[in-house]
Amino acid sequence: MTTQHTPGTWKVETCDYALATPPRKELKISNSQCYLATLACDFDMPNNPYTVPLEQAQANARLIAAAPELLAALEDCAGVLESIDKQLRGKSYAITEVLRKSRAAISKATQP
Questions:
Q1: Around 14, how many Cα atoms within 13 Å sit in the side-chain half-sphere?
Q2: CA–CA gap between residue 9 and residue 108 (Å, rounded)
């Protein structure tokens, strides 16, 4: 499959804007060439309506940064499950259902 997303290993970097109004931290997701996304998070302002708590933003950023590897792993797993499903002639509901969910997630990630 040809990927349409930005290639490469994605990483999370914390940028501190303590002097901004309102003060905040931003978590930037990037590869070696460009920034891909920015998540704003609280900086000593737990009720800031424009951000999420730091811990939640960090978890979101890690999930986003892992997306290319997660997609590749799911595509590999779906390939293995397809082989097993063919050998079992679709008789395993669990495998068929996991394969269906895997294909739906792959489609969600790769289709415009």
A1: 14
A2: 21
Model confidence pLDDT, tens digit, residues 80-92: 999 999 999 989 9
Quote the CA–CA distance of 84 and 93 in Å, as a whole number.
12
pLDDT, one tens digit per residue, over 49-101 is: 777 888 888 899 999 999 999 999 999 999 999 999 999 998 999 999 999 99
Strands (E), 3-112: 11-17, 24-30, 35-42
Residue 88, SS3 per DSSP? coil
Amino acid, res. 82? E
Nearest to 64 by CA among 97, 27, 33: 27
Select from 65, 67, 57 the least CA-distant residue to 10: 65
